[in-house]
Amino acid sequence: MNPLKRLAGQRLPVAVPVHANMLPGCASTRAPHPVPRAGTRRGSSLAALLIASAFLLAAAVSHAAVLAAWNFNGPLTGTLQPVSGAGRLDPVGVGISLFASGEVGRGSSDPVVGNPPDQAWQVSGFPQQGVASGSAGIQGMVDTRGHAAINVTFDFRGTAGSARHQQFQYTLDGRRFLDWGAPVATTVIDPWAIGRRFDLSGVQGVADNPLFGFRVVSVFAPGTDAYQALANGAAYAPSGTWRFDMLSVTGEPIGLASAVVPVPAPAALLAAGLLLLVRIAGWPGMRRGAPSPAL
Question: What is the torsion angle, in degrees rounded to the nearest 10, for the CA atoms of residue 228, residue 231, residue 236 and residue 237?
Answer without folding.
Answer: -140
